[in-house]
UniProtKB/TrEMBL annotation:
One of its GO terms (molecular function) is acetate CoA-transferase activity. This is Acetyl-CoA hydrolase/transferase C-terminal domain-containing protein. It holds the Pfam family AcetylCoA_hyd_C. It comes from Desulfosarcina ovata subsp. ovata. InterPro entries: AcetylCoA_hyd_C (IPR026888), AcetylCoA_hyd_C_sf (IPR038460), ActCoA_hydro (IPR046433), NagB/RpiA_transferase-like (IPR037171).
Length: 296
């Protein structure tokens, strides 16, 4: 076991300490500074998406935020909003959670599991976050099998799980792990939290993505596609997809038919790709005559 005096002392839900008899060797390290993830500048698209997501969050919601610019941006917006009595149950604790707590937005009083606690598995951010965690009884670290258990997540009411995606098809299958056969990341806790939010009373699972991206050849491509690329991994199945948001809007897909989902997703795609998506939907027999093409 290495000793690093720069590491915060984090209280845990359980097993926050081990007995000295369980340690083979203790190494006095060089007290290297912790890795910091600096705050990235939000793009105009990020800001539009964050504003859309903010409209779905109610007083008393229990939040799960992931990694990246968007979660911290949402946290900043919440800190300046009129929202109150929010809770945190998340795999990853980020700087935004500190902002929300210090602004009085997070109290945890409506949690049914670990009431009054900001429960998490690991933390990654800046020194502000690490200093906040040190000897802070408000925060409780748990193993990932505890935090990411959908049956535990759903016990908290109004769970709002916010997760990014790489692409989504017109059937509403979500890919967050690969670009075709090229692996980008693991599943992480995305499926766990989307399912937990789906089962939570008043819960909302939110998939966010920009409407387009630029490929290596400089071509602008749509992230909303007729079908996922060959080899793409389905991270979240269509059966539990609820909310999808781009800079062009937010749609609720739970309980909707295949053709309704296709129409809703085309509505929030980039305008330059809507006509093409409609044509592909027609070929796939998921575009019906009652869909109003005049809107596109």
């Amino acid at each position: 076991m290495e000793v690093n005096e720069n590491v915060p002392y984090c209280f845990g839900g359980y097993y926050e300490t081990i007995h000295i008899s369980m340690v083979d060797k203790i190494v006095e390290g060089k007290n290297n500074p912790l890795i910091e993830i600096p705050k990235a500048k939000a793009s105009p698209v990020d800001i539009k998406i964050a504003k859309q997501i903010l409209t779905t969050i109610e007083d008393g919601s229990c939040l799960q935020l992931g990694i990246g610019t968007l979660p911290n941006l949402i946290g900043e917006m919440i800190s300046k909003s009129d929202l109150k009595d929010l809770s945190i149950h998340t795999e990853m604790l980020v700087d935004a959670c500190v902002d929300m707590y210090e602004s009085g937005k997070v109290t945890g009083i409506h949690k049914k599991v670990d009431r009054l606690k900001m429960s998490y598995t690991f933390a990654l951010g800046t020194i502000k976050l690490y200093d906040f965690l040190h000897m802070n009884p408000t925060c409780a670290s748990f193993p990932v099998h505890y935090i990411n258990d959908p049956d535990r997540i759903c016990k908290n009411p109004k769970v709002v799980a916010i997760n990014n995606a790489i692409e989504i098809d017109l059937f509403s299958q979500v890919c967050s792990e690969s670009v075709g056969y090229r692996h980008i990341s693991g599943t992480g806790g995305q499926l766990d939290f989307i399912l937990g939010a789906f089962k939570s009373t008043g819960g909302k699972g939110i998939i966010s993505l920009s409407s387009t991206y630029t490929d290596k050849d400089g071509n602008i491509c749509s992230r909303i596609v007729p079908t996922l690329k060959p080899g793409a991994i389905v991270t979240v199945p269509r059966s539990i997809v609820q909310y999808v948001v781009t800079e062009y809007g937010i749609v609720q897909l739970k309980g909707k038919s295949t053709w309704e989902r296709a129409e809703e997703l085309i509505n929030i795609s980039h305008p330059n790709f809507r006509e093409e998506l409609i044509k592909e939907a027609e070929k796939m027999n998921i575009w019906v005559k009652s869909n109003k093409k005049d809107n596109y």
